[in-house]
Design brief:
Blueprint (H helix, E strand, L loop, with lengths): L1 H7 L5 H44 L3 H27 L4 H11 L6 H8 L12 H15 L4 H4 L3 H23 L1 H11 L12 E6 L4 E5 L4 E9 L5 E7 L8 E6 L1 E2 L4 E6 L6 E7 L2 E2 L3 E6 L4 E9 L20 E4 L2 E9 L3 E12 L2 E8 L2 E2 L3 E8 L3 E9 L11 E6 L5 E6 L4 E3 L4 E9 L4 E10 L10 E4 L4 E2 L6 E9 L10 E10 L4 E3 L3 E5 L2 H41 L8 H34 L6 H37 L4 H69 L1
Parallel strand pairs: 2-10, 12-19, 21-29
Antiparallel strand pairs: 1-3, 3-7, 4-5, 4-8, 6-7, 8-9, 8-10, 11-13, 13-17, 14-15, 14-18, 16-17, 18-19, 20-22, 22-26, 23-24, 23-27, 25-26, 27-28, 27-29
Length: 728
């Protein structure tokens, strides 16, 4: 009881306990600040370690995920340890021991006073109360002058703060100057993406935009690259061509062309096979780009079937193709049916026809139906000259950029060609003439009808009405079905023609599409029989004059041959006389041509007399005999002479001719001259006789005129006397 009372009278060191409580609060604050700084430093160190490890080793995604889990767990454990250290309060004895270690003047008095005054300490019973009081007083005196800041300092917090600055400042600088590193770190270690780390060289591939693409065969691929960072290293393309059934695999490096100061460029021309490529420049390596090359659609085969229009009369063959090409050449209006096979399955197909329209072209589009994926069928009409082609699109959306263009050449059905072969000239006829006409009609396919038309040259002449004579008996040429002819004879005696009239005549033809073909227009002049006889006499007079000139040429030929013979007889070189022989041969050719013309002219005059029913004319027999003589002269006599002169000219040029050859040629030329002279004499005698007859006719007409004037004068006189007598 006495001991309990004594113990209760011993007071605890209040000042020391207050100092310890202050120390405990200060210590907890310092632990909170220091622990927070340390944890932030650990976090910064973990971030730096994660960054360096991934940047150096370029960890795959699974390792980066494992590393993230490890650091997450580690930081949570560190936070828990720091949190627990701050949360658990320190004991008074521990704080007293810490104070005594920091202040040697206490000499264990503080901890002794605190422990011996602790009511819960059983050891206090073994010490004297006065001693305990004395110890408490001593501790109180020494603690009164002590400050808590003397025992606890911020040195650990400052060190941790400086360490944290060393870790955070570089990170802030990286955010400012290398945001790409920060973005890559966040993408790789927070979102666990496959974003590559930025390197010393940073390139951006502008084209192509997609890493996998499909292009048409023959097209070009542009690789356009921008350099954002790096030095002057060359850029390359690592290209890989995969193996195919026809080609082996190829790998190569292609140098990139520089594009200004900050870029590269390369163009793959005319792509023909698949390829993969990636860009290399310094320490930069891009992802692989895959390019698939596919063929464009094209027309491999095409067949055309023609359905000819009815007017052509041609047979259409719907089974066998007319041509195995896209070029069309057919009559206008032909229906063309086509069948084409394309190299690839199609999604759409259009037939385009380009027709001329003024200074431009008109495009006609026709959507086609696709059969079996790549078969095109359709039809169109060939109306005008134009061009046509197919616009194709494959299932892979590739088009035929340069399609095959075919030509459409229509064959127009021209108007028939008409020719009046006989007479085929301006003619003079009598009202009683019997004229033979021969008309030739030619058309692209066939002529439907023909007409021979006669019209007065002037409306007041004749009846003023035209005469249309149908060609009803056209004969088709068996060797050329496009040609038809007809020969007919017209008796003008029933037309009641008058001398002096002039009629135009022509022939017309009509084809299957009602096109009219017209021949040349000729003039038919109506003459009286006397006028026609005078025309005949005038022509014979002109013929006589021409034959007289021909006879003169024949005599010149004979004289040249005589000169040649004389020169040869004098021993001159035959080759020097070659010009004379050639000139004689040329003159003989001219004579021969004129004789043939004269014979043809006489034949024409004879036919005209017969055509005009003047067979009783006294000149007809004489003209026919004269024409026969000229024909005989041209065919029987003239031919050997020309042959003889040809041989003579050739031998003379070669220096081989003699006097005998020249004499033989002279003999034959004289025969021609004699016969031609006889013909000319006949014409001269006829001309003299006709001149005499004309004079007599003129005298007779003059006498008749005189008699008529005398009779008229007598009537006038007699009429005047009768009037006088009546007046008397």
């Amino acid at each position: 009881m006495a001991d309990s009372l004594e113990d209760s009278m011993i007071e605890r060191p209040l000042l020391a306990l207050r100092r310890i409580r202050q120390l405990r609060a200060r210590r907890r604050l310092m632990r909170v600040v220091t622990g927070l700084l340390r944890w932030m430093a650990i976090v910064s160190a973990a971030v730096w370690l994660s960054f360096l490890l991934d940047w150096i080793a370029v960890l795959p995604t699974p390792l980066r995920v494992a590393q993230g889990l490890f650091w997450t767990v580690f930081l949570l454990l560190a936070f828990r340890a720091i949190f627990l250290a701050v949360r658990v309060p320190a004991k008074e004895s521990e704080l007293a021991a810490m104070v005594e270690q920091s202040s040697r003047e206490l000499e264990d008095s503080l901890i002794t006073a605190i422990q011996l005054t602790d009511p819960n300490n059983p050891r206090r019973k073994y010490y004297n109360a006065d001693l305990i009081r004395r110890t408490v007083e001593l501790a109180e005196e020494k603690v009164a002058d002590l400050s808590p800041g003397r025992f606890l300092s911020w040195s650990r917090a400052r060190k941790t703060f400086f360490l944290l600055l060393l870790l955070v400042i570089p990170a802030l600088l990286a955010v400012e100057y290398r945001p790409d590193l920060v973005r890559s770190f966040v993408a790789r270690n927070v979102y666990f993406e496959s974003t590559p780390w930025p390197q010393a060289y940073s390139l951006v591939i502008l084209q192509p935009e997609a890493q996998t693409m499909t292009l048409a065969k023959g097209s070009a691929l542009v690789v356009d690259i921008r350099k954002d960072r790096g030095g002057n290293a060359r850029g390359y393309l690592q290209v890989s061509f995969p193996a195919t059934e026809e080609r082996r695999a190829i790998e190569e490096e292609v140098a990139l062309d520089r594009k200004g100061e900050g870029g590269f460029r390369h163009v793959f021309q005319n792509l023909q096979r698949d390829l993969n490529f990636r860009v290399l420049c310094g320490d930069y390596t891009s992802e692989w780009y895959a390019v698939q090359v596919r063929s464009r659609p094209r027309v491999e085969e095409i067949e055309l079937f023609y359905e000819y229009p009815e007017y052509t009369g041609l047979l259409s063959d719907p089974i066998n193709p007319a041509v195995r090409s896209g070029h069309v050449k057919a009559p206008i209006g032909t229906m063309v049916r086509f069948k084409a096979r394309v190299s690839l399955p199609l999604s759409s197909a259009t037939r385009i026809e380009s027709r001329p329209s003024g200074d431009s072209e008109e495009l006609i589009r026709e959507t086609l139906t696709i059969q079996d994926g790549n078969i095109l069928e359709g039809r169109f009409s060939a109306e005008v000259d134009s061009r046509w082609w197919f616009e194709l699109e494959s299932l892979e959306n590739f088009t035929n950029e340069n399609p095959i263009t075919w030509r459409i050449a229509v064959i127009p059905d021209r108007a028939p060609e008409v020719l009046v072969e006989v007479p085929g000239q301006n003619i003079e006829v009598t009202p009683r003439a019997m004229i033979e006409f021969s008309v030739l009609l030619r058309d692209d396919y066939a002529v439907q009808s023909g007409t021979l038309i006669f019209e007065p040259e002037l409306e007041e002449e004749g009846s003023g009405e035209s005469r249309n004579i149908p060609l009803a008996n056209l004969v088709v040429d068996p060797e050329n079905g496009k040609v038809s002819t007809e020969t007919l004879t017209l008796d003008l005696d029933s037309w009641d023609l008058k001398p002096g009239e002039r009629w135009k005549y022509r022939a017309e033809a009509l084809d299957a599409i009602d096109q009219i073909g017209v021949s040349r227009t000729w003039i038919l002049s109506v003459l009286s029989q006397d006028e026609l006889e005078r025309v005949t006499q005038d022509e014979l007079t002109l013929l006589r004059e021409r034959l007289e000139e021909t006879l003169t040429v024949q005599r010149d030929v004979r004289r040249e041959l005589e000169d040649l013979s004389e020169a040869l007889s004098m021993g001159k070189d035959p080759s020097d006389q070659a010009p004379i022989a050639r000139q004689a041969r040329t003159g003989q050719d001219r004579v021969s041509t004129r004789i043939e013309d004269a014979a043809e002219r006489l034949e024409t005059i004879s036919n005209r007399l017969l055509r005009n029913r003047m067979s009783d004319a006294e000149e007809l027999d004489w003209i026919q005999n004269l024409a026969e003589n000229l024909d005989r002269l041209s065919s029987e006599t003239m031919a050997p002479v020309r042959k003889r002169l040809d041989n003579l000219a050739r031998k003379t040029a070669n220096g081989e001719t003699g006097v005998e050859d020249a004499e033989e040629a002279i003999f034959e030329v004289r025969q021609v001259e004699s016969q031609l002279g006889a013909v000319v004499n006949d014409l001269q005698e006829w001309g003299d006789m006709r001149t005499m007859i004309r004079k007599i006719e003129e005298l007779i007409r003059t006498e008749k005129d005189l008699e008529e004037r005398v009779e008229e004068r007598v009537r006038q006189i007699l009429g005047g006397e009768s009037e006088s007598e009546g007046g008397n």
